[in-house]
Amino acid sequence: MAGEEFMTQRNEKLAQKVIKGLESRNMSGYYAATKEEALAQALALIDEGSSVTMGGCMSAIGIGLVDAVKEGNYTFIDRMAMDPREALLAGYDADVFLSSANAITEDGVMVNIDGNANRVSYICQGPKKVIFIVGMNKVCVDEDAAIKRARNVAAPANAQRFEIDTPCKKTGACANCKSMNTICCQFLTTRFSMHPGRIHVVLVGDSLGF
Length: 210
Description:
alpha/beta, 40% helix
């Protein structure tokens, strides 16, 4: 059996554990072995005619979800083509928010770090439905490991993506900085949803995002 097949089996089994954890927290989980399956699952969660917005979600882009929404029978709120304040307010009223997680624990707790806080604020409140696209590469054993992953993997990678001047961009590791350019302004831990049917997490067997 090839090494990839062992990882496929591992991901499937671990995903079921994560999904049980999510369900115990009043959130819905799904497993897709491939990007193509993840795209189909995500689209099944979005009603036609819905208004859809997103943060800087590389995972949603990676499975082709953003292009599918733009080309489909949906209203895409393109924050890059709008006045920032208008886009922010329109997003709170959206039917669907597309996101990912910087890390997720084996028992279904998600950790996200944000700079401007639009992403974490949408996760907390506003859009009627939040759909997370999360690669199995982001699953961590516990919350402490998830926070460390968010700070030492996701944040430095995003600093490179945004080309901002932070210590982590230079070293590749978190320096717990107070730089004016820091993208680690808000930390959000999502451990339970008070609203049934609002939060959906599509776990993907492929490696996605940072």
